[in-house]
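Reading a protein record of the kind used here takes little practice once its layout is understood. An example of such a record is reproduced below.
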Amino acid sequence: MHRLTGQFHEPDREATYRRDIAPRVRRESSLSLLVATLIFGMFTVSDYYYVGAGTEFHLLLTVRILVVVSCLALAFVLGRWGGYCRKVWLHALPLWILATGIILLVPLRPESLATQVTAVAVALMAFYLLIPNLLSVVAIASLYLSLGFLITAVMVADASAVVALRISLLLIMTNAVGFFALLRLEKLQRQQYALLQEERVQNQQMTQEIAHRKSLEAQLRRVAERDVLTGLNSRGHFMERAQGLLQRAQSGKSPFCLMMIDVDHFKAINDTWGHSHGDRVLATIAETCMRSLRPQDVIGRFGGEEFIVALPDTGPEDARTVAERLRQKVAELPVREEVPDHRVTVTIGIAGVLEEATDLPALIQQADRALYAGKHGGRNRVVIHQDVGEEA
């Protein structure tokens, strides 16, 4: 900040500061100007006491009325449109009007010079500390008031050299105290503003950091919950969801089935056309399975070329119907466009809940046994565990 004005060295930062304090400046300027105007007008009583009801009093009354009316109008204008950013002159105008009014009182009331010196000192402190303004504006207006009053006192009120010296020392002291008090206040206000801005920036950065971390957590959660290749549930996430569905089915005594799906001769696809083509085949089969299932069904990639499906509220025969539809749709998928006769097939094993004590791992084993039986039975088929018995 500038050593003599207390303002920010950076013009943009100073302009931003003035825009931010504009509402407070408008409110305080209007209120303080009303108070100063009221005090200035109240001295009409002392005017009448010193000069009586004559021509001089009417001249004094005229000066005070002009000052009061002008300042009241400016108080209204400042309250609506005030601000230091582009209207510094508007805030300086009341100081110059008040200073001119005070100076004009000297030739009209020369006999009350001692009282007016005190009033000028109070007015100077009001300029510096009561009416909000920039330090440079206040200093110039205060210098105008001090010199104008001193010159008028010497030339019109016939103040002696000693009196003039006393007045000069008093005005110098008043201006010095007011100047450094306002300078300190300007610096403190801007320091506080700078700290608040820094805190806002830190809070914004913290908010962005929190949002970034939440985004990373969401990405990690998606990575943990989703299989990258197929977009299906990962094995771990499928187990969590299927366990919840199984417990709900057992508590509600509703049917529940599990399907294990294995792509037939998948190794031959990789060996013949490469692993990248095999990945595309898996992704295509996964998409076909998702389209063939209901919204409440849960499907995941169990590992390699195996998929697993949880079918809530579904008995073994209904599960067989779903599996047959899915098997037929997969069989319609071509392995490669240039080899239309070569088709990919899947074998599906189904297991249903027979006892309340059956847990998910046991159900998976049953579906795997049925799948194993289907593989040995010629592949491209659907097998239910209950049909093959425990020895399968």
Observations:
- Residues 244 and 360 are 10 Å apart (CA to CA).
- The beta strands are 256-263, 298-303, 306-312, 334-336, 339-343, 346-352, 382-384.
